[in-house]
Each structure stands twice: as C-alpha cells, then as structure tokens.
Amino acid sequence: MAGGGKLDGKSGMASELDRHVGLVSGIFLIMGTMIGSGIFISPKGVLEGAGSVGLGLITWMACGVVVTLAALCYAELGTMIPKSGGEHSYLMHTYGKLNKCFGPIPAFLFDWVGLFIIRPTMFAIMTLSLGTYAIKPFFLDCQPPESAIKAVSLSAIIVIAFINGYSAKMATHIQNICTVVKLIAILILTIGGIIKISQGNSENIQDGFEDTETDVSLIAIAFYNGLWAFDGWNNLNFVTEELKNPGRNLPISIMVGIPLTTACYVLANIGYLGVMSKEEIVVSHAVAVAWGQRMMGVAAFIMPIFVSISCFGAANGCLFASGRLCFAAAREGHFPQVFSFISLNGRTPLPSIILTAFIGACLIIPGDLSTLIDFFSFSAWIAYGFTVFSLLVLRRTEPKAERPFRVPTVIAVFVVLTSLYLILAPIIQSPRVEFLYAFLFIASGLLLYFPFVYFKAFRRPLQPVVDWITIKIQKTFLVVP
C-alpha cells in the first residue's frame, strides 16, 4: 500500500490511508511532538523540585530512561498489532476477545478519556503555549492579555486542522521542518551556554548537588515536570497503518528519537545554566525568553519565534496522531461510524481530525495551562500503565504470537510499577478534588458503553437522524467509509 490507498470498488477512488511515513519522518514525529513547549518551560519546575543542578540534570536523564522503556513496550505492541489507534488497538486486541460484553470496556474507556481529555488536552496545552510565546515579542515589558493569547491559539488550531485535513504528506513535511527549527533553537541555547562556560561563567554548573532536595514529594514534582516535557513519545503508535515497514521502523524510530530528545534536553539545560543562575531559572516563567534577553540583546525577539514554531510543530504532530485515535475507535463502533470515514482527495481521517480540533478549542476557551497539565498528566499515566500491563497479559494469552520486536519482561513490569507510582503519588501527597473528577469522568463512560455500544438500545430510534447527519457530512467534506 506504499504507492496508494486501497481502491473502493464502487468509486474507483482510494479509501484507505497511505503508508507515507518513513523512518526519518517517524523519528521526527516522535522528536517533534516531544520537543514542544516543555523544554522551554519545564526547566523551572524540574530544578525547583530537584533543588540542585546535579539532581536536576539526573532527573532529565531519568525521565528519558523511563519514557524510552515505556516506548519500547509500545514498540512490541505496535509490531505485534500493526494497527493505527495506539492504546485503543492494543487494549481491544488484548481484552476484546476475552468476553463479548466486558472485553471491549478497557478500550472504550480509553477512547472516552482519550478523545475528551488526554489527546485534546495535550493539543490545547501546546496551542496555548504557542499563543503565549507568539505574542510575547509584542508585550516584552508586561504580561500579554489572556484574550489575545486565546485568539492566537484558536487561530493556530484552525490552521493546523486545515493542514492535517487537507494532506497527510503536507502535515508530515511541516512536522519535519518544525523539528529542524526547534533543533536549531536548542543548538543556539547549547552553544550560547557553552561559550559562557568557556569564558569562565561556570559557577552555576559547579554548584553540583548543593541544596539537593530530600523531600520525596518535591522530587516527584520534578519528575512530573520532566515527564510532561517528554510526552508525545507514543504518537507514532497512533499512525502505524501509515508507517512504512512498521516492524522495522517503529522500534528504530523510538530507539533513535527518544535518546536524541533526552540529549537535547540535557544540553539545553546546560545552556541555560551557562547564562542564568539556578535562582533565576526558578523564578522565570519563560526560561528561553529570559535567556534570549540576557544573551541576544536586540535580537531577543528571535527566541519567542523559535519557541512558537516549536509549539506549532508539536501541536501539528499531536493532532496528526490524535485524529487516528478517533478514527480507530469509530471503526470499532465505539463512536459514530462517520468518524472512521476518510477524505477522498486527501486520504486523511478528516471527520476525526475536525472533532479532535473542536474539542481542543473548547478546552482552550475556559482553561489555563497549569490546570490542563495536571488533569492531563494524571489521566495519561493511567492509560499508559494499563496498556503496558496488556503486554504482560498477551505474554500469557498469546505466547506463540509473532513478535518482530520483544522487550524483556522485567522492563514491562518496571514501567507498570512506575506508572502506579505516578498515579498514586499525587493522590497520597496532595489529594485534590480534581483527581476525584478524573475518576468520575472515566467511570461515566460506562453509562454510555452499555446502552449505546453493547446493547445498541438507543441506536435504532436514532438511526434515521444519524444517517441523515452522516450523509450531510459525506457531501460537505467528501469523505467515504
């Protein structure tokens, strides 16, 4: 299918997704989605939680190790189950066959949370960060107005949704270009810091482990901030059906992309510390902008532009992957079937892209960054941990299944235990009502699963309306099953 999509018998038009994502594009999709606003904002949170420069750098490296191990578990699942949709496909394959009634529930609950919390929240955070940095050069001496930030963010959502809906190849090319730009930004940070250190400004690095934090709860905060900067590591698993030779390219992309990103993060932090003190980084709300003002003088406006492009690339990659979740879920009957349709012209999952972008826009209007990040991180690690646990289940239920890539069992167990810690630690250390809301939202999916998905009780009377809406969407956007 590398040359084109599968032909529809009636129309002669392609009605499946193309395999257009090669190895380099796969690496860039992983790196480009991870390197968004995190490295330009999170150094503050990591250093604040770690207390010392030495532990801060170790935290960045440890986060890279945790994410790499989790991604390798996903690589085994992705090569064993080469379907788009990421966690949805793996959970459906693992549990869907065990019981007709209860088996699909884990996949449906992930779809429910993923479509309405995890993926659109991640998208909203990235576009809000983009809006904040994009207008920062116009408000260097004051805080930008919130209305202006959200107006720019909503405009970015419209542009990114158009690109992803129009052409998957265009979205991939833009992702590659943005990834190169953000690597240039990190290179500037690194070189600038190393030059300062070579000139004798090394006192910030020499602090080492002085003032290292001993409070486990504060160290956990450092990990949460670091892991947020790495999120997006699983995005390539959402587009497996569009990846060329996934059995080879999926694990290689992971083993190259995530360690390279980890190296970039550590080097960027060294760049910051070559110019700014630990205390200056902790009090700064936009570390990269403060670094640019210190190092670049009248050219300081360049850094917010670089960061804006970085956030644009991350948001583009996020929507590219997120649209495939809705597409895969609808294909299984977990959402209205029209969201599994693809564009005749662009061969993209256009309806699912539009829906994901719309939900992200709805989250931006009332939301703020800190609340969205907390809600996202807690919900996401529930999904990650349960998905990796599915790998252990498959080792027992399908021991002879073909696994082009296989990780040692101890790695999967370690990732499951780590995810349990990341889920339970914030509840134990700082219980908040938001965590209860998250659990209630997840459980509320059952109220929809049984009547709409399993029993289909409400489908029959609503079917004429659903059919009418489906036809209208097909005619408007030229999409087919």
Describe this structure in words.
With 481 residues, the chain is mainly α. The chain is 71% helix and 1% strand. The protein has a two-stranded antiparallel sheet with strand order 1-2. α4 (53-80) crosses α16 (369-397). The protein is globular. Residues 1-14 have low confidence and may be disordered.
Topology order in helix (H) and strand (E) letters: HHHHHHHHHHHHHHEHHHHHE
- Give average pLDDT, whole number: 81
Largest sheet: 2 strands, antiparallel
- Beta-strand proportion: under 5%
Q: What structural class is derived from the secondary structure elements?
A: mainly alpha
Strands of the widest sheet, in order across it, are 1-2
Low-pLDDT windows of residues: 1-14
What kind of oligomer do you see?
single chain
Shape: globular
Termini separation (Å)?
17 Å
Helix count from the secondary structure assignment: 19
**In which range does the helix fraction lie?**
over 70%
Rg measurement, Å: 22 Å
Topology:
Blueprint: H1 23-34, H2 38-41, H3 43-50, H4 53-80, H5 87-95, H6 105-134, H7 146-166, H8 168-198, H9 203-206, H10 216-230, H11 246-275, H12 278-283, H13 287-295, H14 302-331, E1 342-343, H15 350-364, H16 369-397, H17 409-429, H18 433-454, H19 459-477, E2 479-480
Antiparallel strand pairs: 1-2
Helix pairs in contact: 1-8, 1-11, 1-14, 3-4, 3-10, 4-10, 4-11, 4-16, 4-17, 5-6, 5-16, 6-7, 6-14, 6-15, 6-16, 6-18, 7-14, 7-15, 8-11, 8-14, 14-15, 16-17
